[in-house]
Specification:
By secondary structure, the chain is of the alpha+beta class. About 60% of the residues lie in helices and about 5% in strands. A hairpin with a 3-residue loop joins strand 1 and strand 2. It is globular and about 75 Å long.
Length: about 475
């Protein structure tokens, strides 16, 4: 094999297979957890052809390889008979805060999807551009195919995230994917579209229509396509259930009985507990935002704009959609979603600042499609690929989005349709009942200002390293 000699040299100079507790890899390096680091021949490894350097950090012995590390990793696993243990569990650190742990978990789950996420976001953005330029119509076959490609990953995100989360939480990958597929099964969408059997908590903020039941227990169905948090919580719970089942189920039937019981437990629990909690949290966010808007549009704009990206990450933004739809139906306009409009531009400005300041080639390559898709309102590649792992750019983008949201609230910006995203969402602010552009020029000035502010704040605040073996400015 191409890397067999290199793999043998690495294993020999980390102290042999018996000195390896575990092995993982990231984008450019092999990450060993050794029983005794003193047994490793660091100087020899640093001088070995095919190895960039060796880094000892966070309780890990890291052998920097480069972009072809997945191939070297597979060869090391094969040569060392390491059972292809691709666990991504990080060394526990009691001094690491909850936010850092959360970011580490999210980054680990999303990192494998970033390339495809960026690609599909670009395709979706360009498809919207082609329609806006009149090159395609939404009825054309070309548009439909490109739209299917652009939506493919994000619509079925629960399945993809189930796969990556299964590695993070050590769950059978196919069981995890089955859980994710259950959440986006088309039959459930059909059930949800029908008339409800009855409504729970009628008249309250958490009013919930029940369209069907499970063994007599009410199911509050929500749209899980494109969601993030429900599937991550589900796979985390599955890891606990699967671990418990392994202790009590005989080896001879573990192959099928463990996934059998895991699915039967986790999927209903997700539908009956995780989903409703997400739905109710979203409803509370919507009601709270409307109350704040009635008190102060500027304050409401700062909250909606500043927290919009966080709302989207947790799926809480869906709580604002019914409020917006009701406003459109009753008043013909909506100020709530309008106040979130600056968020994608603030995020894009932060990513441009990262690209301008970083020396990391990998970050620059991820930044280009992130900026393109961000301009079209698709910010997931930017958030999960760059700004959230780096922390400061994400925080600065939220601040800039909050300022932009406050400005939109101040000028009384209203959306008259729920239409395009990003630059194509500008037309949402055109009032069909009056002639002229209205306050659209002011809206454009605000989103440009939000992008500039996101850039400036991020550039000044700086950021750490995304890939430790590449140099960046601090």
């Amino acid at each position: 094999m191409k890397y067999e000699a290199l793999a043998k040299s690495i294993i020999e100079n980390v102290g042999g297979t018996e000195n390896i507790n575990s092995l993982t890899h990231c984008v450019t390096r092999l990450r060993f957890k050794l029983k005794d680091e003193s047994k490793a021949n660091t100087d020899v490894l640093k001088k070995t052809d095919g190895i960039v350097t060796v880094i000892k950090s966070g309780g890990q012995y890291q052998v920097v390889i480069g972009n072809h590390v997945p191939d070297v990793y597979q060869e090391v696993v094969t040569v060392g008979n390491l059972n292809n243990n691709e666990s991504s569990e990080q060394e526990k650190d009691k001094n690491v805060g909850l936010f850092n742990k959360f970011v580490d978990m999210i980054s680990g789950i999303f990192a494998p999807t970033l390339g495809t996420l960026a690609a599909t976001g670009m395709i979706k953005g360009f498809n919207a551009l082609f329609v806006a330029l009149g090159w395609l119509t939404v009825e054309s076959g070309a548009y439909q195919v490109l739209n299917a490609i652009g939506d493919s990953l994000f619509y079925f995100f629960p399945i993809f995230l189930a796969f990556t989360a299964s590695k993070k939480f050590k769950v059978n990958q196919f069981t995890a994917m089955a859980i994710g597929a259950s959440l986006v099964h088309p039959t459930l969408a059909g059930i949800r579209a029908g008339d409800p059997l009855y409504t729970l908590f009628s008249g309250s903020i958490i009013e919930s229509p029940v369209h069907t039941t499970f063994l007599g227990l009410p199911l509050i169905l929500m749209d899980y396509s494109s969601t993030v948090i429900p599937i991550i919580v589900a796979i985390f719970l599955a890891s606990k259930v699967e671990k418990g089942l392994k202790k009590i189920i005989p080896d001879v039937v573990k192959t099928f009985l463990i996934p059998f019981f895991t699915l039967l437990i986790i999927v209903p629990v997700t539908f009956m507990i995780v989903g409703p909690i997400a739905t109710w949290a979203g409803s509370l966010v919507g009601a709270g935002t409307l109350a704040v808007y009635n008190l102060s549009p500027i304050l409401a704009g700062a909250i909606v704009g500043g927290f919009w990206q966080i709302f989207v990450m947790f799926g809480l933004h869906w709580g604002l959609v019914p409020v917006a739809l009701n406003n459109l139906a009753v008043y013909g306009y909506d100020p709530i979603l309008a106040m979130s409009f600056a968020a994608s531009f603030a995020q894009t400005g932060a990513i441009i600042a990262v690209m301008a300041k970083t020396k990391e080639k990998k970050v620059k390559s991820l930044g280009i499609p992130s900026v393109i898709s961000g301009m079209f309102g698709v910010t997931e590649p930017a958030i999960y690929g760059i700004s959230l792992p780096l922390k400061k750019p994400f925080i600065m983008s939220c601040i800039a989005a909050g300022v932009g949201g406050a400005a939109l609230g101040l000028v009384g910006a209203n959306g008259y349709v729920i239409g395009g995203l990003g630059i194509f969402g500008i037309t949402n602010f055109l009032n069909p009942a009056v002639s002229g552009l209205g306050n659209v020029p002011i809206v454009i000035a605000i989103i440009i200002g939000s992008m500039i502010l996101g850039f400036v704040l991020t550039y000044i605040a700086g950021f750490g390293k995304l890939y430790e073996d590449d140099a960046v400015f601090e």
